[in-house]
Amino acid sequence: MIRETERPALSPDQSHRLLDQGPVLVRRSDGDAECDYVNESWLRFTGRTFEEQVGKGWADCLHPEDLAPYLERRRFGSSLAPIEYRLRRHDGVYRRVRDVALPFFEPGGKVGGYISACVDIEDPEGSDDPTTFLRMMAHELRTPLSSMRIFVEVLRRSSARGVSNSPETFAKLDAQIGRMERLVDDLSRSSRLSELELSLENLELGDLVRRVVDLRWRIGDSLRAVRRHSIEYSGDDDGRWVWADRLRLEQVFTNLLNNAIKYSPSGGTIQISLSSQDGMQCVSFVDPGIGIPPKEIPLLTRRFFRASNASRENYPGLGLGLSFASEIVERHGGTLTFRSEMGRGTEATVRLPAGAPGPFGLLSEESDAR
Amino acid sequence: MATILIVEDDEDLQEALSEALEDEGYRVRAAPNGLEALSKLLGDNDKERPNLIVLDLMMPLMNGWQFLKERVRYPSLSEIPVLVLTASSDARPNQAAAVLRKPIQPLEFFEAVRKTMAPSSGIS
């Protein structure tokens, strides 16, 4: 028999320090899942305050799809075996954690609740986790694939009836193929971003921005009964030359425009303004959308980042677009910055070094240096 | 003629579904999220109420799960069957009459629409 007295115990102070500084997230809940304790590690991981987590608050950090099964399995008498679920980290990224629980007893022997301890079991290198990425990519491909299947079926049926196929349906089908191409492009670029090569030419910025907007709007204009968003330009857009890669910049502006639309789900006016400042040409996209929590703005261009007010259940996506956009702008010697007010909207501004005027530009040493 | 309300935030898919269902002879209405769907439905009189709701799950403002939860608070709405379309491989909301996974196979979709549809109540 092992005599307990022979094994020295940790002091309460040591236990507490270990609990609060270690990698294990600890939470104590009663039988109704009301929480009265979380350790410092839990608060650091979730980026929440103690007050936000007690009671039922902790449940907000669990992935909505995982919460009900978790509560079901952790009920009295249920198994206390390890459970895996997704827990939202401070940067908005859901991480898979493994949770083990230990029941505690009230005087009289009745189960009072459980203390759970969980650890992040995803690759410590971070959210580049290939399984998560592939799962999200598969998810993103399914919607345009659905549209393609349906448009093909519509075309097949009209052919079968001897009705000539509408060019509009072909245009819509083509637009879906374009969407798939962009996703595949993102997929390949996510693995070799550092090889991004620019093919530079002298471009008129206002013209480029209008082209992107027209392309996004062209199909919709003639076909969609109700457009939820409108575009308003400001600033004169003539003669703002930049030395840049046309396709890459189109990709940046498409991404900013799509975000402005996506994150203003109630519709409204998206303002696009062009200006010059300190030798830089600037384009801003201002949307009337949901905004971004101020402390998360510096994280926006991180790969896979999701703002805490934009869950995947409401705003699905890969979390790659802005990281690519910022990478492209920086390769041009420019910057991509954001200003935002929660519930009011967001302004995304691209600043690019001004090029020499004229369609051909000046092939100077400066441009060779890029 | 039976009416279908499509609740889908992806404009392209909303359009594709509308076109295909109209082609099948249904009257189609659409909403881009659960919140607008709910306000449309609550504004309807009995005759305008759809015979089927085709519901996406991941949507802004009010997602599909939240919509299903809200819907049961209104007896007149909870009678309308819901066909869920989802890109998630494991979501299975239990208030849905049927669940189809994206990518949608058109024939399977039409079949599911026919099967889950509430009978049209003498609407001209």
Detailed description of the structure:
The complex is a heterodimer of chains A (370) and B (124). Chain A is an alpha+beta fold and 370 residues long. Chain A folds into three domains: 117 residues, Beta-Lactamase; 65 residues, Helix Hairpins (Orthogonal Bundle); 159 residues, Heat Shock Protein 90 (2-Layer Sandwich), CATH 3.30.565. Helix content of chain A is 37%, strand content 24%. In chain A, the strands form three sheets. A five-stranded antiparallel beta sheet of chain A has the order 2-1-5-4-3. Chain A has a five-stranded mixed beta sheet with strand order 7-9-10-12-11. Chain A is globular. The C terminus of chain A is likely disordered. Chain B has one domain: Response regulator (Rossmann fold, 3-Layer(aba) Sandwich). Chain B has a five-stranded parallel beta sheet with strand order 2-1-3-4-5. In chain B, α2 runs parallel beside α3. The termini of chain B are close together.
